[in-house]
Design a protein that fits this description.
This protein has 9 helices and 7 strands; from the N terminus they run E-H-E-H-H-H-E-H-E-H-E-E-H-H-E-H. With 214 residues, it is of the alpha/beta class. Strands 2-3-1-4-7 form a 5-stranded parallel beta sheet, sandwiched between helices. A two-stranded antiparallel ribbon has the order 5-6. It binds adenosine-5'-diphosphate (3 copies). The site of one adenosine-5'-diphosphate has 7 residues, from helix 1, strand 6 and helix 9.
């Protein structure tokens, strides 16, 4: 199964990705997590990406496409994968098609902008695993610690309110056009496309997505 989750920053892609990947036994491919790992490791890519990410802008398409090409050719992707946060531009979607990747499903998670700001301001993450929490909506069992490892949770640099507004603007301008792009592909019978309302509890959204995928 090859699935892509499409949605604004904070729409719940990473949260839902974990459920889907567990259920279908496929790896989660998050370009955001890959870029943050490069930043932590201090690689050349990480140094280049950090300033762009902190400004809420998108990393150039050619860099992202190279990362994805290398990742999906690994053995654990042979039976499918879940794309979280990629593609984010029409050029990236076209680049993916050139790699001859046939997605089975594109699922859009639809959340209004007002809600996004609340979600991202309370988001806390466990950097090593990508596990995500929310101070109010999804608190960890122990204050500011990861449920699994007990390690500290952090707030991402780009989850500050000014950057969140910028990221939303970038989403509407550069990523939202993918909705029409994939609707068109769906009309041509090349992929299945569905929109899931993203307001509700984590479990409600999970069940909506599972119902569609079945
Ligand atoms: P969120 O989960 O909040 O949507 P991500 O972790 O997916 O955020 O992405 C964080 C940042 O990493 C983005 O704002 C962007 O700068 C960069 N990034 C991640 N994925 C891509 C991509 N596919 N293309 C360009 N930039 C990306
Ligand atoms: P379950 O398997 O019943 O979902 P878990 O112990 O895995 O139980 O999760 C407990 C609660 O934490 C869940 O009800 C869910 O709301 C939330 N949760 C689990 N994983 C995540 C995640 N990655 N992001 C956000 N919330 C999560
Ligand atoms: P994305 O990967 O799309 O950027 P995340 O999965 O990281 O989004 O979720 C953003 C924030 O919203 C996190 O703090 C997460 O715990 C929280 N969240 C996710 N799903 C829900 C939900 N259904 N209701 C409330 N908060 C949620």
């Amino acid at each position: 199964m090859k699935i892509m989750l499409l949605g604004a920053p904070g729409s719940g892609k990473g949260t839902q990705a974990q459920f889907i990947c567990e259920r279908y036994g496929i790896p989660q491919i998050s370009t955001g997590d890959m870029l943050r790992a490069a930043v932590r490791e201090g690689t050349e890519l990480g140094r280049k990406a950090k300033a762009i990410m902190d400004a809420g802008e998108l990393v150039p398409d050619d860099i992202i496409l190279k990362l994805i090409a290398a990742r999906i050719s690994q053995p654990d992707c042979a039976n499918g994968f879940l794309l979280d946060g990629f593609p984010r531009t029409i050029a990236q979607a076209e680049g993916l098609e050139k790699m001859e990747v046939q997605l089975d499903w594109v699922i859009e998670i639809d959340v209004p902008d007002e809600e996004i700001v609340k979600r991202l301001s309370g988001r806390r993450v466990h950097p090593a695993s990508g596990r995500v929490y929310h101070l109010l909506y999804n608190p960890p069992k122990e204050d500011c610690k990861d449920d699994v490892t007990g390690e500290p949770l952090i707030q991402r640099d780009d989850d500050k309110e000014e950057t969140v507004r910028k990221r939303l603007e970038v989403y509407h301008r550069q990523t939202a056009p993918l909705v029409d792009f994939y609707r068109q592909r769906s009309a041509e019978g090349k992929v299945k496309f569905a929109t899931v309302p993203g307001i509700g509890t984590v479990e409600e959204i999970r069940d909506r997505i599972f119902q569609i995928l079945e």
